[in-house]
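Researcher: Next entry in the queue.
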Amino acid sequence: MKLSVVVPAYNEARSVTEVVGRLLALDADLEILAVDDGSTDRTWEALQQIDSPHLRLLRHPRNRGKGAAIRTALPAARGDYVVIQDADLEYDPRDILALLAEAERTGAGVVYGNRIHGEFSRSYQRYYWGGRLVTLITNLLYGLGIHDEPVGYKLFRRDLLQALPLRCEGFEFCPEVTARVARAGHRIREVPISYAPRSFAQGKKITWKDGAIAVWTLLRLRFLPGERP
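Model: Structure for this entry, 229 residues:
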């Protein structure tokens, strides 16, 4: 089965070449849709230096956010499945194969990675506990039983993802897509993945405000009129 890997990138010149290289090294039939989200460093130039027929490049003239970058790529996706790959080095692309194998084995339309298992690596304490809170609120509001809602690795059957009315522009893409998947009645399966959190000095971008926006997004999509999937 063909896999579309969406790589939203904003000021990731230091890591995006290695990320794409690791993806190209996977034993999988894939296409990579890399979206430069208005970077002000040399992200675009770095992407242009990669010579591969499996890579397609898209670009925003200004920074709009992770969700906007993903939504820009989705109409161009041709794979049976779509997975999100951040342009940093926190996630190991080899774990994508485990998500894809779970989808193929079970016929699941949605598979998330799960960083919360065994002797797992944690980011800053506020990120870890913030993620636990967002996951708890997600499960309570939408009747789910997942372990790691904010995880970056989320894999979807392409037709399922493209049918969702996604509107979010920023990091709140994650809670939005989870909420809309749940409201549409799709089960979310999980597989354990590795995680190597980076520091602020290494380019970490999410702040406490993004956590607050995530919670508001979950509440808004659950209760406000006009926000039904």
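Model: Strands lie at 3-9, 30-37, 55-60, 81-84, 110-114, 154-157, 189-192.
Researcher: Noted, moving on.
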